[in-house]
Amino acid sequence: MKSSSKPVSRLKVRKSKEVLEKYQKALLKKREELVGEVKHLQDETSNKSQREAAGDLSGYSIHPADQATDSYDRQFSIDLASSEGRIIRDIDAALKRIQEKTFGVCETCGKKINSGRLKILPYAPYCFKCQEKNEIE
């Protein structure tokens, strides 16, 4: 497929006010949950020393295998918080698209995003075809 150099026009989506409010409510709820999870993960990883996180407050040294497990768990929590932070930004962008009346329009091709996709991933900025194409590239 040849891609044209024309800018993609952003359609105004004609979704009912009730439908947009439903998506907005769901997005705000999901955002609130994720913000709570990120805060909890950040508190867990940043406020404790490795020894405290392991629950070992004794004077004995920590076994190297335990240290490796603790380091892995800590890095996993940091990665999870980062991933959830990206989703929060995607949700914020979707909320902005609701305000701009462009919610449900693919940011790449300008076509309508399938409602089934939006039910599963309400913050999706791309239609399935364009998302698949972005992942391949």
Q: In summary, what is this structure?
A:
The chain is mostly helical. It has helices at residues 17-46, 50-53, 64-99, 115-120, 128-136. It has a single domain (17-47, 64-136), classed as DksA, coiled-coil domain (Four Helix Bundle (Hemerythrin (Met), subunit A)).
Q: Note the beta-strand portion.
A: under 5%
Terminal residue distance: 14 Å
Rg over alpha carbons: 21 Å
Q: Sketch the topology as an H/E string, one letter per element.
A: HHHHH
CATH topology, by name, is: Four Helix Bundle (Hemerythrin (Met), subunit A)
Helix/sheet category: mainly alpha
Q: In CATH, what is the class?
A: Mainly Alpha
Helix content: 55-70%
Major sheet characteristics? none
The low-confidence parts are 1-9
**Which oligomeric form is depicted?**
single chain
User: Any idea how many domains?
Assistant: 1
Report the strand count.
0
- Could you state the CATH homologous superfamily? DksA, coiled-coil domain
Based on the coordinates given, report the CATH architecture.
Answer: Up-down Bundle
Shape label: elongated
User: What is the helix tally?
Assistant: 5
Mean pLDDT: 79
